[in-house]
Design a protein that fits this description.
By secondary structure, the protein is an alpha/beta fold. The protein has 3 helices and 9 strands; from the N terminus they run αββαββββαβββ. The strands form 3 sheets. The protein has a 5-stranded mixed β-sheet. Strand 1 and strand 2 form a beta hairpin. The N and C termini lie far apart (about 70 Å). The mean pLDDT is about 85.
Length: about 220
Amino acid sequence: MSFPKFASNDGVIDAATAALGDALLSAVEHVGEIRLNVKRERVVDALRILRDDLAYQQLMEIAGVDYPDRPERFEVVYCLLSLTKNHRIRVHVSTDEVQPVPSVTGLWPVAGWLEREVYDMYGVLFEGNQDLRRILTDYGFQGHPQRKDFPLTGFVELRYSEEEKRVVYEPVKLAQDFRNFDFMSPWEGAEYILPGDEKAKAPEAPGAPTPAKADEVKK
């Protein structure tokens, strides 16, 4: 049975180190994948070299990662594929909320959409992207949902107003308070009184007799 042969990682880091020069900060191989950390301001040059000189022709994805405890909390990850080598490589750059990352739309036009996704989800700015708008959320959306400090409920909710005949935005109103979960086994049962349990111990209301047990029903 035939199957595609993946290229080995042997020599890849050495070749990338020689080709990228001072644009490369570090290179790591982990769990069979190679990660290149490059300088933010040199990312376009680095990716051009990887595309033209090292044959990583396709940009498959641009992803964002949020590390709130870091001074530069965001990482932008470029996932590249070499069709001729059947090999993949990742390129990482770091940034924060205000320092833009150079756009790579001049290398791969599809990067325009991918950069918009990272901007929408994380708020990372891309210098040179001529159409940096939200792409997954609505234009009136507040905040960036994939940030670690973004509330799970969001800030606003939308609904269609019959009175105004349009979609309106309103502050989020929770139907109930947040609950503290103790992660106990549901078969053991809680050792404290849950809201509403006090009703089970209340006296029976007049006119509401307890249903007869099965063995008390006359047949």
